[in-house]
Amino acid sequence: MTVTEPATHFDSRYSDPEATATEWPSARRALTEAPLYWLSTVRPGGRPHTTPLIGVWHEGALYFCTGAGERKNLNLEANPWCALITGRNDLAGGTDLVVEGRAERERDEDVLRRVAAAYLSKYGEDWRFSVRDNAFVHGPGVALVYAVSPTTVFGFAKGPYGQTRWSF
User: Fold this and answer.
1) 137-167 burial by CB neighbour count: b if 16+ within 10 A, else e?
2) pLDDT for the residue 1
3) How far apart are CA 38 and CA 50, in angstroms?
4) Which distant-in-sequence residues (6+ apart) come within 8 Å of 137 by Cβ?
5) What whole-number distance in Å separates Cα of residue 75 and Cα of residue 78?
6) Side-chain half-sphere exposure of 32, counting CA atoms within 13 A
7) Among 8, 57, 90, 158, which is most exposed with the fewest C-beta within 10 angstroms?
8) Cβ(61)–Cβ(1) under 8 Å?
9) In the chain, what are the domains?
10) Mapped to the 3 state alphabet, what secondary structure does the chain carry?
11) In tens digits, what is the pLDDT along the chain, a chain of 168 residues?
12) Distances 145 to 88, 89, 103 between C-alpha atoms, Å
């Protein structure tokens, strides 16, 4: 996967006068270190579906996994556009991040092995996956792996408040 550096846009309309744009390396580090993400997809009837999950930022994309019969997978099969959100649930600090893009099923087993190693490094032994038949395997369970290469990432800094958008 080609890693692209985004164009940075600071929106002063929604920012404190003393705020500045969040640098992309800082946002990328936050995406890498985040313990939890919220995935928002669209149900076939148009209603939203949001669920928490773990994932890894790897080689310019946010990866997550799901069972074939889970609602998020069924939604993504019908409409691959989604948003992944992470941040801090307070008003006084940190930066909330929203990653928008298309979720593409990852089937390359070399990439899957690297992503599995990233899960193990980040989350420990409870999240050790093997790779077989283009999917993650954990005990008797099989998980499909998706990659979201961002089209846009929004950063909402708090303290001072500042809004940055990265376009890919």
Assistant:
1) eeeeebbbbbbbbbeebbbbbbeeebbbbbe
2) 55
3) 7
4) 129, 130, 131, 143
5) 5
6) 11
7) 90
8) yes
9) 7-167 (2.30.110.10)
10) CCCCCCEEEEEHHHCCCCCCCCCHHHHHHHHHHCCCEEEEEECCCCCEEEEEECCEEECCEEEEEECCCCHHHHHHHHCCEEEEEECCCCCCCCEEEEEEEEEEECCCHHHHHHHHHHHHHHHCHHHCCEEECCEEEECCEEEEEEEEEEEEEEEEECCCCEEEEEEC
11) 566 789 999 999 999 999 999 999 999 999 999 999 999 999 999 999 999 999 999 999 999 999 999 999 999 999 999 999 999 988 989 999 999 999 999 999 999 999 999 999 999 999 999 999 999 999 999 999 999 999 999 999 998 999 999 999
12) 26, 27, 9
**The two three-digit tokens of residue 58, written as one number:** 């790897």
In this structure, which amino acid lies at residue 149? S
**Both structure tokens of 44:** 């076939």
